[in-house]
Amino acid sequence: MPDTLDQLKKQWQELNLRTTRLEEANNELSQRLARGHVTSTQQRLARDTRRWGIAGFLLVLLAIPLVHTFSMPWWVGVVYAAFGILMAILNFNLSAFIERERLVDLPVTQAYERACRIRHRQFLCRVTGIICGSLVIAMLFYYFWLQNDIIIIYSFAGGLIIGLSLGISKAYRQNRMSRQLIDDFKD
Amino acid sequence: MSRDKQQRFQQIADDYKVVIAKVCSVYASASAPFADLYQEVMLNLWIGLDSFRGEAKVSTWIYRLALNTCINWHRRNRRHQGLTSLETGADIPAPVDDASEGIQELYRLIEHLAPIEKALITLWLDEKPYDEIAAILGISKANVATKLHRIRTRLSQMASNL
């Protein structure tokens, strides 16, 4: 004769677990976790985004030799630096936003909603970067074209291809991570 | 910093080991062994410790974390990509192996439920009030009551058919 649910509930509450081994396991796990660099997808995504922010600041530094060494007009340097600052601000802001969201301990429905919000902001940041970046590239290309120096144009095109390849592979990685965040909570 | 975190982790892990073990034992199966679930919960506890600001009760936070981990484990079971693999090699036996016939029967019944239903019934078994269950699972109190009523009716029918 099966027990009723309420009887089973009572038995569940009176259940004495053998916890000695668990305490040993907790001790062992805490030591291993303290030793290793354990990161979640969310933390890795925030770290990756922060790196993009640092790259933005590097563009600001690159604007100086553009004007001084390559004798480009000052407005080219200003536009280049402004793009770098914009990308740095957007990415640092996004990175802080990702870090603030506590996906691991939110109820599943809320965690899913927050993960979607992270992906949406990541998308907006990327679209802004692509639009502004394209304008800067077009501007530089136009300037080099006016110089009528085939070596500079080829160097620029080479740099552009390398930069785009790196950027696309990085963006793909970030996209995969934010997709994984959503998949973790998707019903 | 890391030592302080380790102490906090150890303290919470020891204080709530029974809660975590009970949740993991409900979700444990052949494809999701108890030891793996327990370690994954501990891993998330370690990661989540930095961001826990004490806005919710520790017990609520632990339940959420343990249930989220176990539910997510089931969702991605086929193509499991843990947050970060933790090669502990720790052999953690399920602490309820020699449980009474009644408890074994309860596990057999719960096994038939969907992951979110398992979460609800686990919290009900632990006598959590409806508003706390609602806070843990992020659903309304009315929804908790409705769902729990359905699940209990189903379990009772299943128990009487055994």
Question: How would you explain this protein's 3D organization?
Answer:
The complex is a heterodimer of chains A (187) and B (162). Chain A is mainly α. Chain A has six helices and no strands. Chain A has one domain (42-185). Helices cover 84% and strands 0% of the residues of chain A. In chain A, helix 5 (108-147) runs antiparallel to helix 6. The longest helix of chain A is centred in the last third of the chain and has 40 residues, at 108-147. Chain A is elongated and about 90 Å long. The mean pLDDT of chain A is 84. Chain B contains eight helices and no strands. In chain B, helix 4 packs across helix 7. Chain B has two domains: 1-95, RNA polymerase sigma factor, region 2, helix turn helix motif (Rna Polymerase Sigma Factor, Chain: A); 99-162, Arc Repressor Mutant, subunit A (Orthogonal Bundle), CATH 1.10.10. Chain B is globular and about 55 Å long. Helix content of chain B is 67%, strand content 0%. The interface between A and B is large, with 47 and 63 residues.
Could you outline the blueprint of secondary structure elements for this entry?
The complex is a heterodimer of chains A (187) and B (162).
Chain A: H1 5-14, H2 20-35, H3 41-68, H4 74-100, H5 108-147, H6 150-185
Helix pairs in contact in A: 3-4, 3-6, 4-5, 5-6
Chain B: H1 2-15, H2 17-27, H3 34-49, H4 58-75, H5 101-110, H6 115-125, H7 130-137, H8 141-161
Helix pairs in contact in B: 1-3, 2-3, 2-4, 2-6, 3-4, 4-6, 4-7, 6-8, 7-8
